[in-house]
Amino acid sequence: MERVYDCIVLGAGGAGTSAAYHLARRGRRVLLLDQFAVPHDRGSSHGHSRIFRLAYDHPDYVHLAQHALDRWRELEEVSGQTLLTLTGGLDLGPGALPGLRAVEESLRGAGAQVETLDAGALMRRFPQWRVPGDWAAVYSPDAGIVNPTQTVELLAALARSEGATVLEHTPALDLDLGDPRAPVVRTPRGTFACRRLIVAAGAWLPHLVPELTPTLRVTLETTAFFRVRDLAAFLPGRFPVFIQHARVGEAEVYGFPAFGLPGVKIAEHLQGPATTAETRSFEVDGATLARLGAYLERHLPGAAGPVMQARTCLYTTTPTQDFLLDTHDAVVPGGSPSVLLASPCSGHGFKFVPALGELMADWADGVTHPLHFGRFRAGRARNTLTSAGS
Ligand SMILES: Cc1cc2nc3c(=O)[nH]c(=O)nc-3n(C[C@H](O)[C@H](O)[C@H](O)COP(=O)(O)OP(=O)(O)OC[C@H]3O[C@@H](n4cnc5c(N)ncnc54)[C@H](O)[C@@H]3O)c2cc1C
User: Fold this and answer.
1) N or C: the chain end with fewer CB closer than 10 Å?
2) Relative to the CA of 39, which ligand 1 atom is closest?
3) Which residues neighbour 190 within 8 Å (Cβ) at sequence distance 6 or greater?
4) Distance from C-alpha of 82 to C-alpha of 370, rounded to nearest angstrom
5) 110 and 66 in contact (C-beta within 8 Å)?
6) Is a pLDDT exceeding 60 seen at residue 384?
7) Model confidence over 237-255: pLDDT tens digits?
8) Is 154 exposed, middle or buried (0-12, 13-18, 19+ CB in 10 A)?
9) What pLDDT sits at residue 387?
10) Which domains does the chain possess?
């Protein structure tokens, strides 16, 4: 055995780097390991942009996002970097959709600022949009963009500065969870034991814990940047991030102002084919690009230029689209209570990264964070599907 840690964090994406940083700054002996370089582009935490928003249809997520907003600002102070660019955010779509009303109600309930716009008011305020007369929008000023590649790089650097050991290119080959007081991780660079193990392995979780295979669905999602005609009209100060809610059977579409590249980035939520982290391709789906282009022609004609860049990314989704943050023994009969299985993805986890690291660090310290909701339990993750994209 090489060394015993207070906590090993397996997986250095957004979730793992944040947990490692929070634990290291509390003075815990932490090992953070990843099979690839940190950051890399084979999981879920890479690229220029993720939507930050308070606008959720359930108060739990609004409260968690409000907490995360404070934590993003704290991280900016610590690092001297801009991490969250506020652009405002639009939830829009056919006005009769209950999801839109639920977003408005939960924002108001949490004391957040919110405005509702009918189709005419939306197009006067944001003339980039063309929408049918029966559409409506909920506008929240507390929405914007965070950068996953920058954040992962930064959190790993901060974790190192606080004394964490970060091992890149170090795959966990297997886990020995037989002794509940000392989980063990075997890697090609040695075998490591700890008091608490956090498995934040993203789309690789079902491989490490096969009992999760029925609960976690991995899909290959496509995002694309399209060249805009008038760049000024699509800059962050003029064009808010958006989520277009859809009727049952239609795709929810979300997008960003020109950020990272001089074009609009858009994508469909949870429409990609099922895959696994081990067998996935990196091929961009041409049919998806064609649908995204047609969407822009219809609703944002000023952004319907040629594709500038298209990429794939893995979603790991529970049936309820809630996160999974529960112990191994809640998933595996007779399993270890000293291991936390962390899958905060379902296509909408990045905005919460600084808050989720704190929740996981609390778990490792034997404390339950007040925002570690019952909806993150494994039992609930086996339930029915709702909507909560980006
Ligand atoms: C296309 C797309 C769009 C998204 N849009 C948004 C958005 O707008 N807003 C938002 O809030 N969220 C969004 N998300 C979700 C967000 O990006 C994820 O919630 C977040 O990145 C999940 O991070 P993670 O750390 O759980 O997983 P990952 O980033 O995948 O990290 C898991 C890590 O574990 C490592 N690992 C796995 N197995 C092993 C092993 N055996 N040994 C060592 N290391 C291992 C992997 O190499 C990887 O680095 C989006 C996701 C995608 C894919």
Assistant:
1) N
2) 49
3) 2, 3
4) 28
5) yes
6) no
7) 999 999 999 998 999 999 9
8) buried
9) 43
10) 3-45+149-215+319-381 (3.50.50.60), 74-144+217-317 (3.30.9.10)
Return the closest-CA partner of residue 203 out of 347, 25, 2, 69. 347
26 closest CA partner among 4, 3, 6: 6
The contacts of residue 116 (CB under 8 Å, 6+ apart) are 104, 136, 137, 138, 139
> Can you give the pLDDT at residue 181?
87
Task: Calculate mean pLDDT across residues 219-232.
Answer: 97
Q: For ligand 1, atom 37, name the residue with the nearest CA.
A: 201
Q: Look up the pTM and report it.
A: 0.97
Q: Are 198 and 10 in contact (CB under 8 A)?
A: yes
- pLDDT over threshold 60, residue 9: yes
User: What is the per-residue pLDDT for 379?
Assistant: 87
Q: What is the mean pLDDT of residues 263-282?
A: 97
